[in-house]
């Protein structure tokens, strides 16, 4: 299709489309071409849509065959089971009263269950469904938080964590071991800290090795009194 850029004395894109529209009207009146097979009620929706697009997007976007659409901003989803009242009030249609009802209804198992709360209709929910979740995403693998999410499953088993840093810890240790506080991280996310017991003979080399973050540690996860700890086992 010609444009002012490559055809200086020619029509604009809108004028060119206007001519096409007139020709199509003439063909419709004379029942020429496809209009001879079409019903009288058929509308020229194609050109109408193109002309509308040229008004809203500009001739250049029209001629390129695409409409400029701004990139959708990323929405940080709110966990309705842990959000504060102030956070809930940021949702469309949710004020202090409905926010309090949501809090009193916890735990909420599914997003659809919100319509069971008085004052929240299907239409209200549709306005913020895309902004909420009912539970936090699981912690990343190879972090302490991941294993603490299901302790009974991993107790007395060897597990692997990625160590971010190690600090000394002054606690009573089993004979032949020294305690450290092991801070974990994975894929750029903090994964919590856990007590780890290291055999005396490996302690110095251990602290040197894990001075560099991002290295894996394999240990036995077990419960000591009310705490859960990792133990480096001798082969």
TrEMBL record:
<dbReference type="Pfam" id="PF12836">
    <property type="entry name" value="HHH_3"/>
</dbReference>
<dbReference type="InterPro" id="IPR010994">
    <property type="entry name" value="RuvA_2-like"/>
</dbReference>
<protein>
    <recommendedName>
        <fullName>Helix-hairpin-helix DNA-binding motif class 1 domain-containing protein</fullName>
    </recommendedName>
</protein>
<dbReference type="InterPro" id="IPR051675">
    <property type="entry name" value="Endo/Exo/Phosphatase_dom_1"/>
</dbReference>
């Amino acid at each position: 299709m010609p444009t002012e850029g490559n055809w200086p004395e020619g029509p604009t894109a809108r004028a060119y489309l206007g001519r096409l529209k007139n020709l199509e009207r003439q063909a419709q009146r004379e029942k020429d071409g496809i209009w001879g097979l079409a019903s009288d009620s058929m509308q020229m929706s194609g050109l109408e849509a193109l002309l509308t697009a040229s008004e809203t997007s500009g001739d250049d976007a029209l001629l390129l065959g695409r409409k400029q659409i701004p990139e959708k901003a990323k929405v940080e989803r709110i966990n309705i089971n842990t959000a504060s009242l102030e956070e809930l009030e940021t949702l469309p249609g949710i004020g202090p009263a409905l926010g309090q009802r949501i809090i009193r209804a916890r735990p909420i198992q599914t997003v659809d269950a919100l319509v069971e709360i008085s004052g929240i209709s299907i239409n209200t929910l549709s306005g913020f469904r895309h902004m909420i979740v009912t539970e936090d995403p699981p912690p990343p693998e190879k972090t302490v938080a991941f294993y603490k999410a299901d302790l009974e499953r991993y107790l007395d088993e060897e597990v692997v964590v990625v160590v971010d840093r190690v600090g000394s810890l002054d606690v009573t240790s089993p004979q032949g071991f020294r305690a450290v506080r092991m801070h974990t991280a994975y894929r750029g996310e903090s994964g919590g800290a856990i007590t780890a017991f290291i055999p005396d003979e490996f302690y110095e080399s251990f602290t040197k090795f894990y001075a560099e973050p991002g290295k894996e540690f394999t240990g036995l996860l077990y419960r000591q009194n009310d705490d859960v700890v990792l133990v480096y086992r001798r082969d």
